[in-house]
Amino acid sequence: MGVESLLVFIIIGAIAGWLAGLIVSGFGFGLIGNIIVGIVGAFIAGWLFPLIGFSIGGGIIASIIHAMIGAIILLVLVRVLKRA
Predict the structure, then answer these.
(1) Residues 6 or more apart in contact with residue 81 via CB below 8 angstroms
(2) How many CB atoms lie within 10 A of CB 8?
């Protein structure tokens, strides 16, 4: 993985984590928190979407949406587990 790919990966994670934080909690988690939430969300969606046969497409926008949906799933699960 080149430096450019890693940088794009981090930027997509940051945007997806920020958007998911706005949707689920109403605020972001700071730059590092958004990156972590977005990257973990991308891994969750990357694992879950092929299992259910769901595909968004290709490109950066599709990657951001993909990671954002995974991050929303992650944040909802964390919220449910915190209440239990």
Answers:
(1) none
(2) 13
